[in-house]
Sequence to fold (515 residues):
Amino acid sequence: MNAPQTAYDWFARSAAAHGHEVTALEVGGEELSYGALRELAERLAARLVAANGGRPPRRVGLLAGRSVTAYAGYLAALRAGAAVVPLNPESPPARSAAVVASAGLDLVLADAHAAADAEADLGAPVLVVGAEERAALARDPAPDLPPTPTGPDDLAYLLFTSGSTGAPKGVPISHRNLSAYLGLMTTRYGVGPGSRMSQNFELTFDGSVHDLFVAWAGGGTLVVPTRGQLLSPVRTVNKLGLTHWFSVPSLISFASRLGTLRPGSMPTLRWSVFGGEPLTLAAAREWRSAAPGSRIEVLYGPTELTISCTGHLLPDDPDAWPTTPNGTAPIGEGHPGLDLLLRGDDGAPGDVGELCVRGPQRFPGYLDPANDAGRFLTPDGRRVADGRVTDRHWYRTGDRVAVLDGVLVHLGRTDHQVKLRGHRVELGEIEVVLRQQPGVREAIVVPVATADGEVEVEAAVTGPGCDPDVLYAALAARLPPYMRPRRITVLDQLPLNGNGKIDRSAVLAHLGQAR
Fold:
């Protein structure tokens, strides 16, 4: 088989090599070999074409989660020639309907559980496939499908992120973007038959695409924990016999709170990858002690740059780990083939500034071109672009980074930099001082508006025995008065969004209710 050109090609190559001898998917108590998963995907693809009037659908919504239908359906939509548009089964019907309309979906493929929970018309035909429908599909004659009618420049998937206007913002990723990423990742983690790779992310988060296709491109087994199992990471790793783990760092905090991150408690892990938000070195040390046979890597990148655009592998010896100004692991170096630019506040390139990226993983622009405004730089990297986006334009990540000892360190979001009493302050700088205090596990600092229109900051922390008075005293010895939070609130845990990241808006709302 030639080099894979589309997402389905990556899976099909492994299916041809391993057939029924290697398990491709374990979910909900079921196991499917590569051969069985391919057969199901092909039958579902034929059903999608039939449901679309005999024509290959252009875009298919996937309203399913942690079920055979979810993963076979993902492959089926790709096999039929469609872009996959995951829908969150827990989203309000009005939001799902808005995504359906914005994406221009031809139809929606749903598992029985998600379809039963849907309370309103989504605005597109819904094909429900549960256990009974899958059994019926198995009795159908093998479909005679033409070759997949997609090429490298067609869309592989379309994800919707929160937009500043309150409306979901569509991020299209092409097969060319994804193939560039998979070409780098398929050998990076030694995935092959016998590898058991976690699938911790929901399909609406692009970390799930890494899980699915890095596993399937390498011939490994995609192992899907239940949502409840994600709250007990150590127990889940051992129960499922995982060799590869990929999650947001907040799951380390879950394990730490449970007291399960004991030395050597996860002996099966060979690779542990974290992304989605900064990984503190303290959390990494806890995880490393519990999984001493595992290498730890940080991946960084927004959805617009196809899952991740930089990576940093921590040395095997924790004593050789770097010291960073904010206590987080570096995000490392850019992936091969990508151009990276750090743009300072004055618009000039430097060693500190907003990270801007271009290259084969950069998406072609938002689904709604109006959302492109302000998000790209001209090819010379000095001016904000307007008009048509080309391959030479830089994407502005909105993240401030710095070069430290030859690698990149994440300093925080550009929109997390505030002015306090005339001083420009990085909220992350206050957070790191809080995290360094005894007993503090997590800390987040948010800006709040005062009655006179000024800005002050408040903090929320978690950890055993946190005492706000003690923390105030510690901050007084480390920070000038204008940087000290006006209030520190102790929480049992920080609120998370649907992707497992710390939800700053929910923290702000909680602090507002507590006042």
Observations:
- The two ends are 63 Å apart (CA to CA).
- The chain has 14 helices and 25 strands.
- The domain at 421-514 is CATH 3.30.300.30 (GMP Synthetase; Chain A, domain 3).
- The first strand starts at residue 23 and ends at 27.
